[in-house]
Amino acid sequence: MKENPSGPAPVILGIDDLRPLPRATRIARTSGEGIRLLQEHRDSFIDELWLDHDLGGDDSILPVVTLMEEAAFNGRPFRIGTVFVHSANPIGAETVVRSLTRWNYQVRRATA
């Protein structure tokens, strides 16, 4: 197997209950899976994190957002290049964007 001369492949994580997210290297389908996924990458750089607000039933992205906010509050924010918020729920998406921007994460609204 040849070394990748341009360095390691980007880490692109997605937390979404339905979308395939073809660029993602790993996808979590629930907030609980999303929390575990972020904790697995706690000490590494995440190039992109894609978040959907509504995760089916009563589940939402808010437990993941809380984890990210607490990490930043404790002085150890997750190292993420860009957080993309893609959601059919405009109010929920705006809540996520506002919450994470407040903690200096680079956040953008996106369509997935």
Automatic annotation (TrEMBL):
InterPro entries: cREC_REC. Residues 13-101 form the Cyclic-phosphate processing Receiver domain. Pfam families: cREC_REC. It comes from the Bacteria. This is Cyclic-phosphate processing Receiver domain-containing protein. It comes from Streptomyces lunalinharesii.
